[in-house]
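May I ask you for just one protein sequence along with its backbone structure tokens in two labelled lines?

_____
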Amino acid sequence: MTVVVGYLSTPEGREALSTAVDEAIARRVELLVVVSDKDGRSLPEQEGERVEEIARITAPLDAAGLGHRVVPGTGELAEDLVATAEAHHAELIVIGLRRRSPVGKLILGSNAQRILLDSPCPVLAVKPDRA
């Protein structure tokens, strides 16, 4: 079993990763980090800046002794998370949500909605700390 997290280099992505680490440690399972950039593109390992970002992500995981793998996304974050969760029999998906305007609250983000509706397991949605 695994915990799957969608990571973007945003406050929401960092909060999702932090929460997923806590969940993986508590559940004593492997953490799969699906990585995309802000535009939904995957993070291919050959690009220098992206390699550094992956190193920043994995360094604390290595230090904590947490079993983990980084899964490059295809650019469709919702599809990547659901497919990864299905392929690895995940027990939880963790995603970050951004704050929305009063009108935006009526409509959940399309990626979040797709993940919630298509996920084969529970989904934990977190917001970054407001402090």
Remarks:
- The chain has one domain: 2-126.
